[in-house]
Specification:
By secondary structure, the chain is mainly beta. The protein has two helices and nine strands; from the N terminus they run βββαββββαββ. The protein is globular.
Length: 137
Amino acid sequence: MGTFYVRCKVENHVDRSKSVVVPKLLVDTGSDYTWVPAKLLEKIGVQHEKKDLPFVMANGQSITRSVGFAIVRLDKYFTIDEVVFAEQGDMPLLGARTLEGLNLTVDPKRKRLVASGPLLAALSCRVRGCNRACLKE
């Protein structure tokens, strides 16, 4: 598929006036989480919500990192997600969870992100008083 990078804006989810531009994130669908340099997240006041979460790096090494909540913006797309406080030596990444929240997918030929299309939803049951999601009408 090849690799490519994107530029994005990260905002404090409590105070959206606090934001920072991350100039270069590797788009990595193999990473669940988005990794942002800790100094940038701390600069805009993102809190360490989950501490010492275990991660396995691509080389098999086990590490722990903190995770916080932030709004991630790419052009007109945005989502709120859990982001990892990346430490010195960690690669800044745009992960699969954030891509799903942004409703974007990878175009491997053009090495860019494109809209994923309409969001899927379950049908609701048409029987009066039923609150289940049904597969049949």
